[in-house]
Amino acid sequence: MPGGAGGEVCILAVDDRPANLLALERALADIPVRIVKATSGEEALVASLRHRFALAILDVQMPGMDGYELAEILLGDPATSATPIIFMTAAYSDENHVFKGYIAGAVDYIVKPYHPALLVAKVKVFLELAVHRQNLEGIVADRTSELQATQGRFDVLFELAPQALLMVDRSGRVAHGNRAASQLFGLPATVLEGSEIAAILPGFEPAATDGRAAGPPSGESAPVTLLTVHRADGTAIRVEVRVATVQLDSETCALASVTDVSERIAALEDAQRSLREKEVLLKEIHHRVKNNLQIVSSLLRLKCDHLDAPEVRAPLEDSISRVRSMAMVHEHLYGNASLEQIDLGDYARHLTGILRSAYAPSAGLEVLAEPILVSIELATPIGLILNELVSNAFKHGVARAAVRAAAGEFQREDVRVEVRVEAARICIVVHDAGPGMPPGQDERSTGTLGLQLVGVLCQQLEGSIHFHNDEGLRAQFSCPFPGSG
User: Fold this and answer.
1) Which of 54, 63, 338, 374 makes the best surface tag, with the fewest CB within 10 Å?
2) What is the model's pTM?
3) pLDDT at 367 over 60
């Protein structure tokens, strides 16, 4: 089995956080393997020179060389190209990054937090595959040894290879082409051999200007060139070309391996086109939801304008404010490049400005908001909570604040709003300069429909809400921040 000295089975684990490596090591403690840990892509490459790994588990997000770049290097090196790679991430769980991980060559893409039993089961499968691969490698080695003992072994391998192969001499002409190359280009061997490589692969030059065949030294990974070529019948195909330097009859030649990737590229382009279409559709959906919510808000506003009784108008105005806060979530998503997240700090600044215009245009407002990206599932309830807290601050705190300011008791903004991330939690603080809660009473915290809604939403978000008398009323809300892991 692939491993270190003495047949020891080795797994490469790469993560820039030592704590994650320790957790991974503990999760795999019952499997008889050695975990070779690395905290950077560069350290992992050094480890790959010293060990042969049965499996590599790579963190996606790392400073410097990230997981995708490390995987590209490992898969491009013949010594590590057969090593299965599992990507592991806590930040990049969206469909685009999962798709990118599989395109990069991963056999699996695990999102943290993961279940240890599931990870162990997957690792065991890949270790079993490593055993089978080693057995197959042994069989291939035996067959190769047999072929090397026979005359014309190279010609046999060259001709029977499933990959299209072209042997190019120093003059840039095709010295030999195998059966797969004839089928790929639609040319018989008699026409293929002796043709200039520039006519077969336009834009590809395997020969150096000094006459030496180009290509990496033996043992090094071959660079890949993507070309559009035409078959004998005029059909255009996309091919990947790799070139290596070989010795043939004491002559240095370039061995070009040509792979038809037309279907793969077409599938990728279809997937990208489908993704763009879905993004357009999602934008349109968010736009229509926003418009529908604005229509509801407008209808409520029309009804409210025809009512004179304050006790009837007030609930309608509160409902208008709540609908508007939800519409703003879809408005931000429609205007963003990303359809999955909105900036909670920018949203808070926009919403508080609208609420001030609605309830207290002359009130002083200070907003200290960090850029925090959250999903629509989190933004909507947090937006409603923020709407209730800031609305109450403007309705109950501003009038009393003006009296205090006139008396010269203290000077500060009428309403202060803070939005930040603290200890892996989203924290929102709304502080007004009003009278605060009356001693021994909690009507403002439990007596209104709006703050009852806040309580329900707090439970939904597994959050907490507290009110304090601190030169006015200070409301503090917090809930777990999924993006902090």
Assistant:
1) 63
2) 0.42
3) yes
